[in-house]
Protein: EF-Hand 1, calcium-binding site domain-containing protein
Organism: Rozella allomycis
Amino acid sequence: MAELIPPFLTPKNQLSPLFEKIFTSIFKKYDLDQDGCLNKSELDAFALATNGEQFEEESLKKILELVEKNEQGFLTLKGFLQMYACQALADKDETWNDLKTHGFSYDYILEKMKRKEPIVPKHQIGRKNKSKKNHK
Ligand SMILES: [Ca+2]
């Protein structure tokens, strides 16, 4: 049965489509102002929910050095997905822990796949209609 759930990563070590979708929905949940990146307070809220504490200044700096961010230094969606691709490569258990924390446990995903139901609720994907706040 386990084979129903695809691996986290493609052979090129990028998130596979299913997990990209799941992590995108998690990202959007924490991108409260919907500007396509997680600013400091959004990232803190995410870290708090995920790890029970905020990122340490140093480890956050290290993460942000490795992944894509915008001009202000905030984590973009692409950077967020890169971050999780790295984590999935290094520590699958930790990645499952994080997924479970955000409502996507192994059993939940398996059940949805068996029933052929969408794993990510629609309302968590389609938010793009709200116009972005534009600074320019
Ligand atoms: Ca944001």
